[in-house]
Amino acid sequence: MTRRCWVCGSTRLTRRREATVAGPLSAADFRITDAHYGRTAAIDACADCGFCQCTELADVLPFYEALDDPSYDESGPVRGRRMNDLLATLARWKAAGRLVDVGAGSGVLVREAQRRGYQAEGVDPSRRLCERAAAKGARVHLGVLPHPALTPPYDAATLIDVIEHVADPVALLTNVRDLLARDGVGVVVTPDLDSLAARAAGARWWHFRVAHIGYFNRASLLRALDRAGLVPLKLLRPGWHFKVGYLADHAPIYLPFLRRWRPPAGLRERIVRLNLLDSWLVVFCRK
């Protein structure tokens, strides 16, 4: 079988990084909260568009269907703040209406969108995460796009840290385009392989993980949107929210001098906003 780039279709792929994970994989390797940074399948780079992909790990859907990630819900307040930031950005173009969240997980963004007045629903392949979403009042359909329960047109669509998990990002974006109304607006967020943070962290970059099988830079992300019939309206660098305790536990991986930093118990639970400038957020519409 001819090896092709998942974004532009080029056959000019070269090995950028050898596999750093050995043995058979399981659904646990694909948890959203996995912190085994640097573990990936072999990564190939496209000489034509710059996209990087785990060509030999294309069939990952069964892992997501079996996925369970209890720790994901434990970080709900932190993730909720981030989703609110993203929805505030979306609201500059589309502040109300029907919204669909693709790769909705346990429905954090769907719930926040509902609080803002959107008629929100989502879709996700994990049965356990969909069950948790339903238990918390979020309507998240089990499955992937295209999905028979989704009834276009939608005024807004969100894909937050999703397209790096699929082997056909252009098809995914095309399906999203088909869900959008003619004046609909979407938001996609994904890590930036060319970011300063990615270059500084090198092989230990926090976005190098088994679940990420596609790695975009600015050019390849815009190429994927264009091929899917979508037009960028705005490119931004989204920020993140973290508990101070999380930062204290993870920062020493990259800054060893912080190993002895032990914030007071009361401070560990405080949530702070930090922009590492390591992802792209693109607001888009249909051509």
**Regarding quaternary structure, how should these chains be classified?**
single chain
Spans of at least 5 consecutive residues with low confidence: none
CATH homologous superfamily title: Vaccinia Virus protein VP39
Alpha-carbon Rg, integer = 18 Å
- Please give the number of β-strands: 13
> At CATH's second level, what is the architecture?
3-Layer(aba) Sandwich
CATH topology: Rossmann fold
Largest sheet: 7 strands, mixed
Give helix and strand order, one letter per element, not per position. EEEHHHEHEHEEHEHEHEEHHEE
Task: Provide a brief overview of the structure.
The chain is of the alpha/beta class and 287 residues long. It is 28% helix and 24% strand.
Task: Write up this protein.
The protein has one domain (13-286): Rossmann fold. The chain has 10 helices and 13 strands. It has helices at 61-65, 70-74, 76-91, 108-115, 127-135, 169-179, 196-201, 218-227, 244-250, 265-268, and strands at residues 13-17, 43-46, 52-53, 98-102, 119-124, 140-142, 154-160, 180-191, 214-215, 230-236, 240-243, 271-274, 279-286. A 7-stranded mixed sheet has the order 6-5-4-7-8-13-10, sandwiched between helices. The chain has a 4-stranded antiparallel sheet with strand order 1-2-3-9, with no helix packed on it. Helix 3 crosses helix 4 (108-115).
